[in-house]
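Researcher: Let's try something more involved. This one mixes different molecule types, so please make sure each is placed in the same coordinate frame as the others.
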Amino acid sequence: MSKFQVDEHGYYGQFGGAYIPELLYPNVKELEDNYLEIINSEAFQKEYLYLLKQYVGRPTPLYLAPNLSKKYGAHIYLKREDLNHTGAHKVNNTIGQILIAKHLGKKRIIAETGAGQHGVATATVCALMNLECIVFMGEVDIKRQAPNVARMKMLGAKVVAATSGSKTLKDATNEAIRDWIQHPEETYYLIGSVVGPHPYPDMVARLQAIISEEMKWQLKEQTGKENPDTIIACVGGGSNAAGAFYHYMDDEEVALVAVEAAGLGINSGESAATSQLGQVGVIHGSKTILMQDEYGQITEPYSISAGLDYPGVGPLHAHLFESGRGTFMNATDQEALDAAFELTELEGIIPALESSHALAVLGKMDLKKDQVIVINLSGRGDKDLETYINELEKREARNHE
Amino acid sequence: MSKINQLFKEKPNRLCSVYFTSGYPNLNDTTTVIKGLEAAGVDFLEVGLPYSDPMADGPTIQESSSVALKNGINLDVIFNQLEEIKDEVNIPLIAMGYFNQVVRYGAERFCQKCQSVGIETLVLPDMPMIEYENTYKAMFAKYGLSNVFLITPQTSEERIRKIDEMTDAFIYVVASSSITGAKGTISNAQIDYFNRIKSYNLKSTLIAGFGISSKDTFDTVCNHVNGAIIGSAFVKYIGANGVDNIDAFVKDIIG
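Model: All components are placed in one shared frame. Result:
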């Protein structure tokens, strides 16, 4: 029995569970009773793997980045989730969940999105399966991720602005849950991360586990060994990290490094580094670590990266943190921007701002010459061009002086 | 016997309860609202504990909660406000909030405070039944607190019967499958639902909530269950009219 898998009651250690209003109980119970049977069925596996291969473009490459490796003095591999159809790892999950939704006979799909990657991935599979799609997105994120909003609309989704709270991912999730409460029978809530009530964290982790499944044979092929020394992934809710860690959680020789967004700095009051700033509590239906005040009011987080701008963390990650199995690091806005420019210059790859947080800790680690590191490059940077252009202008102005 | 069960014994029908958001529209309106509602003839009150992320509430209550939090409301302020008027309030008080508030405040400390200010019933819509059974039932009992569970049109008969067994105040019957919010009418499907619940012959008092906003909806609901809770409609009213004419609002509904 794995120490890090969900238990029969839906918990990872003390974290997880299903803290939901009675109105949602039948929906969550229906999913809980059926998800494993569906996922493990031959029909599901066949269709899921077929779509991942022929529609998404998997397996994604595992690329030994020569210039980055040289700079940091280690063997640094990039797991190229940025090359997936729609531009990030999110689609692994949406392909799986849309098949589950179809199996349950649901006709109306709702989703929350931060950076818009999950929204695009959901709108994409809804177009593919001809299902109604409604995406909730914070008003602030709608502004800073305009290209993804346009893509969702072109794909036929209705994008609804969340205007409460900090108008970001947390608030989009609240609106999605409200909508689900209002339309419990016909609606499937397609959650984009390893958050929410059980069984969502486990279901999403299983659907993202394809990342580490491929890493194993790709590493074996390229290095002769299935295990790297270190895996690095960014964590907002934590779905790309869950996928990259999944098949390595019980191999304790593999160091698992989760990188949170420090925003303007851990102690600046403008941060999203949940493990450093949070305490145990309940958010969006699961018990986990979250940023809150002394009265349990959830704190509004901040990060330059819309995908990491979340005051909680999935219960699996809370457990990895509390048990010490995971190493939690963080990177500021500026460190992430610098890392994005560095990867672009060294390897000709423009990463998403989220993934840049994972890259940004390389300089903070004590690396050994033979160390094999896999960084999960969870998404590409097209959606962040406006932010990158601003940074480029700043850099040009500095050079000019 | 708890105050609320005493009430149910004396008045089995047309029970009228009102939900209000503490600290709304102004921080110190809490006590005025409680005294005003009691004077207007409301039978028991739901004291809303404003929360940053109230996922079981609709936009009206969420907005009022957000205003109240900006006003500076928190659990300590609310407990102090209730303490202040403890001797003047005779009707039963119910606290309604979210599980995270209780966990973070310290569940035992929260229970202690509730008991000392005269709250004897709790509604925590996102507390799982299993947590209640395993952990909180005993703790609540120690401080004389009873817990209220919600049921909806989607709740199975088996689960309703289990809730009935565990209930020692009342069952909160969610009157529509929508979230709280003034809607204006009670549909035939809702009446069928009330009648189905009634046919189970449960031991608990049934109080309907969500979507009751007028004399019409109140009367209709009271033909089928023991009473009703008015929430969003009242919050909207005090948001627009302030807290000095509560009597007029209540009289319009209960006559």
